[in-house]
Each structure stands twice: as C-alpha cells, then as structure tokens.
TrEMBL record:
Name of the protein: asparaginase
Record keyword Acyltransferase present: no
Top-level taxonomic group: Eukaryota
The Asparaginase/glutaminase C-terminal domain, residue ranges: 221-325
InterPro entries: AsnASE_II, Asp/glu_Ase-like_sf, Asparaginase/glutaminase-like, Asparaginase/glutaminase_AS1, Asparaginase/glutaminase_AS2, Asparaginase_C, L-asparaginase_C, L-asparaginase_N
C-alpha cells in the first residue's frame, strides 16, 4: 500500500518590491525597478518550493512598497482573512518591498485573527542580481508558513536567515541585507539549513490590540510630523487643513516638542484632531501623558499612525484610544 502525503497548501500574495525587482545587469543593485517580475515567475524560479508545499500565487499588486495605500492594506487583510478561514489553505506568504513592510506587517498583526501562519518576505537585492537574496528568502518563508511551529505567533517576517515579529520589526538599514531588526525585543528565530528554529514558544506582544475591520472600506487620513530644532509650528495646521483627522508627532526624546509648537498642537486638539506623541528615536517609549494628547508608548511614528487610523475608523473615544496606546 502506498501512502500519499499531502503537502501543506500555501497561498503566496505578491505585492512587488525588490524581491520582484529587475535591473539591466547582474551587478546593478541600486536604481533598478522594484515590482517588475510576476509572483508566478518568482515561484517558478525556486523549484525546491514544490518539495515543501503546494503553492498558489496571487498577484495583489506589483510596485515599490512606497505605493501601498489604505485600500491595498484592506484588500490584503481581506485575502489573509479568507485564507485563514479556508479549508484549502494552511498558511499565507506575502512578498513585499522592504521599505514599508513593517507598516503592512503591523497592520495585519492588528486586523487578522491568528489562526494560520502569515509570513512576510522581501529582499534587499533585485531578482536579477548576482547573489540575489530573494529566492532563499522565499523558500524559507514558504517553509515557515508550512510549519506548525509558526502557529499562534501572528505575522512573522523572514529575511537574511532570521525570523522576526511583524509587530516589532523595523527596517534598520537602507542598504544592508540584515536590515530587519527589533533592537529591544530581538529576533524570534533563525533558519538552520532552511528549517525554521525558534528561540521561544509562541506569545503575543503586550499592547497587541485586535480591530475587526471586516466592513471597513477606507481608513482616515493620519499624518506624521517630524520634530527637529527650529521646527515650523504652523506645519501642523496645514496638515489639518489638508484633511488630517489625526496627527502623530515624531517627538525629540521622550515627548519633546518646541514651546511655540505646543501652542499650535493645543489648538488643533481643541479643534477635534487626535494627537499622538511618538518618538523620532529608534527605540524607547514616550511616557503616558496627563493631558489631552496621547503617548505612543513603544510604537514608532509609522506604527502609531496605523494604530490611530484603526482606532479612528472604529469610532473609539479619546479615552479608548488612549487606553490602547498607553498600556
Ligand atoms: N527597496 C525596496 C525593497 O527593498 C523597494 C520596496 O520597498 O518596494 O523592497
């Protein structure tokens, strides 16, 4: 009697980025076109994937990740949720440009129930380069999505032989292959001969908040204002005039903003805009506030922005919003 072993079924959602990038020569590693190669061609370029899983590619988009918008995030969320619910899918891989991968991974951490593995993967060298990192990263991402060890950990990120938390990672270098880091929280695991190995058993990050956005069709505009010596205090009013319903301040240190700037911040808050104080430093937290603004805690400006968009679109009060940031 022959026993047929069914391979795990993995859905790969392609969105572009450097992993799908194409240059005019093998030695060109800057100035190439990201999002030039189809998801099917990326899968076909790694025949070893067929030994690990039965994969199905879906092209969601094919561009540089700077072009990801709220409707695209919502579309990805719908597809990841559908895969989560489907009996024909055991895990999801999302290929993504590294520039804004941390934003999409954070968004899905907050909006997709974690039933099956969701693994983000990118690359720092285009697919046409000598020693392109995309093919091995894709193989490892599929291996991880097919592995029961990935269950209950939320969206994960694979790059450069490392496994990281989609909630915590950030792109730490504009160029280096080991760009994804969570300096305070660390990596969750690594690959040994392309097999995933974890340092810890599964756990949820403190501060993870779930938003049910099944019926959401767009997200409100929230903008980020960068803090620096001599900042123009009135730039904030311009953001509000241009439609911002919320603002994130990338403050200096632990909540620092100029005296003249704070005056304008107070005025926009009184006008109904929600303001979150985040930090321009890579690490550390902004301490809980005692006034009407909100502190981001550990969240970076780009992650605070997503959290605030979700809170606003869910109709949270100021107090509810404060409570999900200031844990
Ligand atoms: N340079 C980017 C990348 O590493 C391009 C992008 O984010 O789409 O994928």
């Amino acid at each position: 009697m022959t026993l047929t072993i069914r391979l795990p079924r993995i859905t790969i959602l392609g969105t572009g980025g450097t992993i799908a990038g194409s240059a005019t020569s093998q030695t060109q590693t800057t100035g190439y076109q990201p999002g030039a190669i189809s998801i099917q061609s990326l899968i076909d370029a790694v025949p070893a994937i067929a030994q690990i899983a039965t994969v199905k590619g879906e092209q969601v988009a094919n561009f540089r990740s700077t072009e990801v918008t709220s409707p695209i995030l919502l579309d990805l969320c719908r597809r990841a949720r559908a895969a989560n619910e489907s009996d024909d899918c055991d895990g999801v891989v999302i290929t993504h440009g590294t520039d804004t991968l941390e934003e999409t991974a954070f968004f899905l951490s907050l909006t997709v129930p974690w039933k099956k593995p969701i693994v983000f993967v990118g690359a720092m060298r285009p697919a046409t380069a000598i020693s392109a990192d995309g093919p091995i990263n894709l193989l490892q991402a599929v291996t991880l999505a097919a592995s029961p060890t990935a269950l209950g950990r939320g969206p994960l990120v694979v790059l450069n032989d490392r496994i990281s938390s989609g909630f915590y990672i950030t792109k730490s270098s504009a160029n280096a292959l080991d760009t994804f880091k969570a300096p305070e929280q660390g990596h969750l695991g690594y690959f040994d001969n392309s097999q995933p190995k974890f340092f810890y058993s599964s756990a949820s990050p403190i501060g993870l908040h779930y938003f049910d956005i099944k019926d959401t069709i767009d997200l409100p505009q929230v903008d980020i204002v960068y803090g620096y010596q001599g900042l123009n205090p009135h730039i904030i009013t311009e953001y509000v005039r241009a439609g911002a319903k919320g603002l994130i301040l990338a403050t200096m240190g632990n909540g620092g903003w100029t005296i003249a700037g704070m005056e304008v911040v107070r005025q926009v808050i009184e006008g109904g805009v929600i303001v979150v104080h985040s930090h321009r430093s890579q690490d550390g937290a902004v301490s809980s506030s005692v006034d009407i603004s909100i502190s981001s805690g550990l969240l970076s400006p780009q992650k605070s922005r997503i959290m605030l968009q979700l809170a606003l679109s869910s109709g949270y009060t100021l107090e509810q919003t404060k409570s999900i940031f200031e844990i």
